[in-house]
Model the fold of this input.
Amino acid sequence: MPQNAEKILDHAPLFREPEYVEMLAKKKAAFENMPPSEEVQKVADWTKSWEYREKNFARQSLSVNPAKACQPLGAVFVAAGFEKTMSFVHGSQGCVAYYRSHLSRHFKEPASAVSSSMTEDAAVFGGLKNMVDGLANTYALYSPKMIAVSTTCMAEVIGDDLQSFITTARNEGSVPADFDVPYAHTPAFVGSHVTGYDNMLKGILEHFWKHRERQPGTAINIIPGFDGFAVGNNRELKRLLGLMSVEYTLLSDVSDQFDTPSDGEYRMYDGGTTLDSVKTAQDAKATLSMQEYCTTKTLEYAAEFGQETASFHYPMGVAGTDEFLMKLSELSGKAIPEEIRMERGRLIDAMADSQSWLHGKTYAIYGDPDFVFGMARFILETGGEPRHCLATNGTKAWEVQMQALFDSSPYGTGCKAWGGKDLWHMRSLLATEKVDLLIGNSYGKYLERDTGTPLVRLMFPIFDRHHHHRFPVWGYQGALRVLVTLLDKFFDKLDAETIEPGVTDYSYDLTR
Amino acid sequence: MSLDDYANDAEFHKRLIAEVLEAYPDKTKKRRQKHLSTAKAVDAPAEEEAPEAGGLTECDVKSNLKSVPGVMTVRGCAYAGSKGVVWGPVKDMVHISHGPVGCGQYSWSQRRNYYIGDTGVDTFVTMQFTTDFQEKDIVFGGDKKLDKVIDEINELFPLAKGISIQSECPIGLIGDDIEAVARKKNKETGKTIVPVRCEGFRGVSQSLGHHIANDAIRDWVFDKREIAHETGPYDVNVIGDYNIGGDAWASRILLEEMGLRVVGNWSGDATLSEIEHAPKARLNLIHCYRSMNYICRHMEEKYGIPWTEYNFFGPSQIADSMRKIAALFDDNIKEKTEAVIAKYQPLVDAVVAKFRPRLEGKTVMLYVGGLRPRHVINSYEDLGMKIVGTGYEFGHNDDYQRTGHYVKEGTLIYDDATGYELEKFIEGIRPDLVGSGIKEKYPVQKMGIPFRQMHSWDYSGPYHGYDGFAIFARDMDLAINNPVWGLFKAPWSTAA
Done:
């Protein structure tokens, strides 16, 4: 009998016990009708060949293991960064269950959002009634300060008009006349979650800015963008801004919302950008975006009011951080203090100490377009080569930006950006042109398994490792953490390869 | 093992319901109050020995109705019921999430349907295949794209035995004819192609998706090909075990030890063949009644295969269920079954001896899908724990009827509970443990109340069978008795 009360076996060892191994072999032989193992092996080898790679890249319609999500996820994420704001997603209810689960699994935190629960009758008659009743219920039950309305693809396909629906709901008393209900149409069949972030943020700004007169000021708005590391990153950003004494508003700050304490009280809402500061953010001198592809429309909108705008690609590492801080300094007129210069120096010191272990290492990187850019740029700074850079939601324009980055460094030779491709394409790349390390998210573990490429998780979503998002990857201190993460992976691998006593352990060095 | 009798505080629970309802606008209050109740004693004296003989209580709530907009229902959709639950685990088929990218992305690898296979080569469960609809597909229709996607799957994944098309919301709204595409591709390739009309707006929850998925098996898999299968005297199908964390394997080992031959397991670790030859079996054993009773009824009607419900959670129910199943076979099986029960008794005794003292009297609230809100109750009670509240996301009336066989008088019953209701009920009762889903986990834990996910087994499992019971007991102990719950208050804090 495999199980034992004294030493309880979990699923992994339990099903390796002889009784189960035999049972599963019998099941396979008698009932499954699976192809013979020689045939499976032949096909498995073929899927890793150049021939297969060519067929795989010739795909025109099928998407396999894409690395992107849909617009409303980004809308729910960005709305969570405003004071006491509840996301209300108009359309089918299952979508909202999915966004909440997805965010909770990454952050290990509550993720609240409501749905207008449209069903077949709403598909025929439209979802006005759902909006009217839904807003009333959300307002009564969850006492929000703002309800941010976005849409699922169902509502978009039938063409529900959010503006008029919300006006009707307001007139029918679902929410008070002056209650804030910004909205954005977020069709899942256009763009990805980064597009939804942009649309919802623009919707929120429009709601507060449209009928307001701008009084030009000196503060700077900063938009973090869709970021799985937002908890750590936004706090690091605020620390740097504090050190520089810059007057700023983060436009959507989820760092407290997705990192509430355990002290016996469940906080449905915590922190976030206050609604008052969203209003006055219109007066800012400039709006900076940490992620260009999350903010295309929002920045255009800010520029309409005469604000200066600038965007970055998930600034990471040395030059990325330098550039961001210098822009900030230029716009705010505040000098970069000595303390930050010291932090920079310490990062450079660490990079110099470890340079021999990273120089010439090859990488594959995938994720959102801005992240891939920022990550690749940092890798180039370590003397590494980001050979395969892939963004399912990356465009031709992104590929051009990436190529310019590769061209700027001798280590960029032989590197290529793949926009619009998925992780099944990445599998072919890794199988035919091996690299030392893969940088991505939890889904990358299947690539690690199939191609033997060690995975480092630095991109949303991370389901199978805990709490990394609570630490920053931005700023010089964040870069230090990324550096250590990469080094640990290489050292652990080297130790694993040299651990066999009397065989490889001559290289099992104490000091590296 | 005899169950200690206990009753819950019905009056207190009724007060909680009244308080919760006060928060709603009138119209919503009227709708929600029908879904909240307490279990009532049945008129007939509840003296029966076996729970099956008659209900202990009545759980009189409305169910399977539309969720109220804006209240934060926990429910999902028909697509989740079909792709996520019924079809997704069928391992040697490719399941296309047909429509925009999100549905497939969020449900990718989240159900923990364990399987053996070379993923991407002969099995495909933990992969996300999608037609990734763009605006032009919405405007011009997606049938041509679907046709091409099926060709590309056949070229790149030649060992896939078949393909299912899992419709997302837009498909039914833009008038695509996926059935025509399926017929055409089946003719061209000879492979099984199953169109499933599980658009997320259909029905009121996951539940209709289960039903539609069952119907798709009936209409697009059964009787389509010659099946070479010689029926033996003890052939059974296991229906409605999705092998979460290996549940179906921990069940199969017992059924085989009883002398039965499990010819098909639906749908955890299943192959298309296991579905195709199911109508040749002698008996259907159904675990998740809610999601697969439809196909059992069909097989009974069309092929004359009887079906019986069973419950492999916790030793009391396992032994009862094995005896109930054995009673449908000859003495050979009955004798073996007694031997199996006897064989595992020392394990059960050791697990109970180890954990019951640590769990005795602890109270539990459950809120799960369509089966577990009743099915896991006795496994808690076998450990001396008490169920104070339970409810279904997407149960029907027949589920609540069956729940009466399990819960004690006064138990709080909540159907399609809203986020608000759950929070207030849990806050009011402050049970020692809550068992629910990922969306509920963190709010509950923040309140300082231990929690276990009862959909995914919180990344543990199996929980079925005797081997699973040991893990279940260990997990409940580690959840409740972890020292972290005593660290919530800062020692300098003055609040009581």
Remarks:
- The first helix of chain A runs from residue 11 to 14.
- The CA atoms of residues 246 and 333 of chain A lie 9 Å apart.
- Chain A touches chain B through 109 residues (CB under 8 Å).
